[in-house]
Design goal:
Layout (H helix, E strand, L loop, with lengths): L8 E5 L4 H12 L3 E6 L2 H13 L3 E6 L5 H15 L4 E4 L14 H29 L2 E6 L13 H21 L4 E8 L5 H4 L3 H9 L9 H11 L11 E4 L9 H5 L2
Parallel strand pairs: 1-2, 1-4, 2-3, 4-5, 5-6, 6-7
Helix pairs in contact: 1-2, 1-8, 3-4, 4-5
Bound molecules: NADP nicotinamide-adenine-dinucleotide phosphate (NAP).
The site of NADP nicotinamide-adenine-dinucleotide phosphate has 31 residues, from helix 1, helix 4 and helix 6.
């Protein structure tokens, strides 16, 4: 049994849908005071309202993680609404697909700006409040794609997700003296609106490659994030937790499906 996070101030970026929404909902269910962040303010508010209806404490905040000023204001909003910041889930990310030969510079820049720079800006924005309290938990949503595997069309995405981990490892050393830990969850294929958009064929092929026999749920990732954000994970920093149903384990995915 983990020490409850009741009353803790939690920011989740990219929380209007998908994995971020699942994480925000779980943290709200466990008593966290959650700031639901996304660019689309109406969608963020709809998600926060659903969490309130389920009995949790959640409010919305519209911000682009790639915007330095917006991230600073997001942190100020959390401090003014909740009196501080205990937990940041740096989750916002995009995964457009483009074969390398056709990948446009603007597309590469946008993926890096959201996934990598957005992680940096969100993390940096919460540090003054966390350092002030001499405690904090930061969890980054990375991916198996990049740090562990590759996938056609996602050279920019994989690079951004691997780069998040390089950022995390140095941040972990710098933040340790302040009582702040930073870790990453690496989801495999998780059923979300974003993944649905890749099509039924992709989903069926991916499910066949998972030893545990199914695609992941947002709850699978949220549970891992909750552990890394808990008091009990206080001696873990700079580490990765793969949540992929064993997908990255087989020496040959064909051996798994017999074909
Ligand atoms: P999703 O369903 O497309 O949701 C993405 C969320 O991020 C939305 O709330 C979106 O809202 C927000 N967002 C996007 N760009 C943003 C920006 N610039 N600033 C602020 N918010 C932004 O995606 P998902 O599948 O849940 O993925 C979430 C994270 O998990 C990403 O980092 C992704 O790389 C990672 N991941 C996902 C999977 C998977 O299988 N789904 C696997 C591995 C890793 P707005 O558009 O309104 O901003």
């Amino acid at each position: 049994m983990l020490t409850p996070i009741a009353g803790r101030s939690v920011i989740v970026t990219g929380a209007s849908r998908g994995i971020g929404r699942g994480i925000a909902a779980l943290f709200a269910r466990h008593g966290g005071r959650v700031l639901v962040v996304a660019r689309d303010g109406a969608a963020a508010e709809e998600a926060a309202a659903a969490m309130r209806e389920a009995g949790g404490e959640a409010t919305s905040y519209a911000a682009d993680v790639a915007d330095e000023t917006a991230m600073a204001r997001m942190a100020e909003a959390a401090v003014s609404r909740h009196g501080g910041i205990d937990i940041l889930i740096a989750n916002a990310g995009i995964f457009p697909s483009a074969p390398l030969v056709m990948m446009r510079e603007a597309e590469f820049d946008q993926v890096m700006a959201t996934n990598l720079k957005g992680t940096f800006l969100a993390v940096r924005a919460v540090l003054p409040a966390m350092q002030n309290d001499r405690r904090g938990r930061i969890v980054i949503t990375s991916s198996i794609t990049g740090p562990v595997t590759g996938y056609p069309g996602w050279a920019h995405y994989g690079a951004s997700k691997a780069a998040q981990l390089g950022f995390m490892r140095t941040a972990a050393i710098e933040l340790a003296p302040h009582g702040i830990t930073i870790n990453a969850v690496l989801p495999g294929n998780i059923v979300t609106e974003g993944l649905d958009a890749l099509g039924a064929d992709y989903l069926t092929r991916m499910a066949r490659a998972v030893p545990l026999g199914r695609l992941g749920s947002v709850a699978d990732v949220a549970n891992a994030a909750l552990f890394l954000a808990s008091d009990e994970a206080g001696y873990i920093t700079g580490q990765t937790l793969i949540v992929d149903g064993g997908q990255t384990l087989p020496e040959s995915p064909e051996a798994l499906t017999g074909g």
